[in-house]
Specification:
Elements: E1 3-8, H1 13-24, E2 31-38, E3 40-47, H2 50-58, E4 67-73, E5 88-89, E6 95-103, H3 106-115, H4 125-136, H5 145-154, E7 158-166, E8 173-178, E9 183-186, E10 191-194, E11 206-209, E12 214-218, E13 223-227, E14 232-233, E15 238-239, H6 255-261, H7 263-271, E16 275-276, E17 281-282, H8 285-288, H9 291-296, E18 299-304, H10 306-323, E19 327-331, H11 332-335, E20 346-352, H12 358-369, E21 373-378, H13 384-388, E22 391-394, H14 407-427, H15 431-452, H16 455-465, E23 470-475, H17 479-494, E24 497-502, E25 519-524, H18 530-541, E26 546-552, E27 564-568, H19 576-594
Parallel strand pairs: 18-19, 18-20, 20-21, 21-22, 23-24, 23-25, 25-26, 26-27
Antiparallel strand pairs: 1-4, 1-10, 2-3, 2-4, 5-6, 6-7, 7-8, 8-12, 9-10, 9-11, 11-15, 12-13, 13-14, 16-17
Helix pairs in contact: 1-2, 3-4, 4-5, 7-14, 7-15, 10-14, 10-17, 14-19, 15-19, 16-19, 17-19
Bound molecules: fructose -6-phosphate.
Amino acid sequence: MCGIVAYLGHRQARPLLLEGLKRLEYRGYDSAGMAVINGGLHVARAVGRVSNLEALVTADPGFTGTLGIAHTRWATHGGVTEANAHPHRDDTNGIALVHNGIIENYSALRTYLTERGHVFTSETDTEVLAMLIGELYDPAHGMDLEKAVQAALREVTGAYAIAVVCEREPDTLVCARKGSPLLVGVGSGEFVVASDASAIVAHTTQAFPLDDYNVCKITREKFTTSTIHNVPVTPRVEQLELDLEQIELGGYSHFMQKEIFEQPRALRTCMRGRLDAAEGTVVLGGLRQFAPQLVRSRRVILAAQGTALHSAMIGEYLLEDLAKVPAECEYASEFRYRNPIIEEGTVVVAVSQSGETADTLAALTEAKERGALALGVINVVGSSIPRITDAGVYLRAGPEIGVASTKAFTAQVAVLTMVSLFMARRRFMSAEQCGSLIRELEQVPDKIERVLELNDSIRAITEKYVERENWLFLGRGYNYPTALEGALKLKEISYIHAEGMPAAEMKHGPIALIDDGMPAVFIATRGSQYEKVMSNISEVRSRGGHVIAVATEGDQEIHHHAQDVFYIPDVPECLSPMVAVVPLQLMAYHAAVLRGHDVDKPRNLAKSVTVE
Ligand code: F6R
């Protein structure tokens, strides 16, 4: 969603801020803006791409200066207009502010400030915060920028990451955080603040994340951190676990394509050091301390959204099938508001790539408050969800920049498989059975590599159907969530209407949609429900639908049923989603490219959804 970059140092801020904004583009945005202090305050904002903003500020000599803040906005309060884009200003002191998050009590604050004579020029909650800081700003009485920010934030409810400058303090940058990530990068004689490490790493690899309710005051010489109640805090500056190569395209056309092809490597890294086939054990350092509680657990609830929900659904199957523990999977957004029953022995697992999804974070907070053991299956280290969990397992998939999640999905399924085996082995599973599944799991990256070799034929088959506006994705058992994921991938980047469902459900209504030539993608790999899937395929064929099947290598029978077939290597049913999803990811990718869409920046979508 929204992105923040801010700079104070010895270099020109403008190019650095623009480069930072471009690195944040993947998060999704609809407008951008920048403020630079150069004698006075200079602000520019533009609807649309960062390049529109670039055209404005590059032509303007006002934007030469070494202190500045910048933002990409994804509209929440107020439409996509220049007036609503950040930075927002106060009306008296030359204060400018960029903000990620939502100020929940903005309406009451706006009424108060309007009564005090302030005039608003936007519909945003952010302008209210800028105006409130300005109202409190009174350096003659000790209320300098830092103190005014602290005081304003004590009045605010909601979530925020902010960076603030003031033309009356040309050597000061103030930033703060509650519930929305913000990192302070500490370079040599310079500081880069950003909502995402990708905007920092080109300049410094030393950084610290701000904690909730903390305010950081940066001057040209140093930084100091305190709470909003002005209690000093000492942050720990750490090495960023990210290098430039990971966030650059490196020969690929799109990040989504790069990340699809990175899956074998990501999975190997995800599993490295965690599996011991000879002993039949899974070693998950993050869970070791909680092993006794996990063994005794009576119920596991998995909460997530979007693609992460689909991997969590596979997790539900895995936990019941392998670990024999009752499991259920739920939209985090539904779980948090339905007064869920958490009894003794309940474990709640939040699954999330970003670790910032607002609903998933809130669901886990709710579950923890009700006494559940709170676990996380997260990719981004140090993000908000792992900060509140009791324990968890990181995906180690590396940064995922394409908005459409791909390698995080397969890594989530791999981690949930390992968690299930971790529990299974301590409950009912023999070392032999666990060892043999581990050996199969270790082969999954090689098998995905073989599927990736089908790239050209997948493109050719996609081309045949790419003009069709309605598609179905069908699967059973472990591959019902795979079907949901295939449909989601297609719709989010190619804007084709696609529905995923259990193959058996089709007869209960959706079959009415099938007309001549409608593409129906079946996950029809060898497994316990193979014959049933064949019957469902016949139902589609006899109504004129075109069947594209993902089938197991060596299955000749499938040609009697499907018009087009993608063969994937044989893999045990419980591990098959990680391999079967790959042709579906590639189909969605090619469909979007063939339709001329911006694959990495699909319309209306944000990489991490930090609002409800
Ligand atoms: C789809 C996609 C989204 C995310 C969802 C949850 O490709 O990326 O559906 O999966 O917004 O995000 P995380 O995993 O960051 O919690």
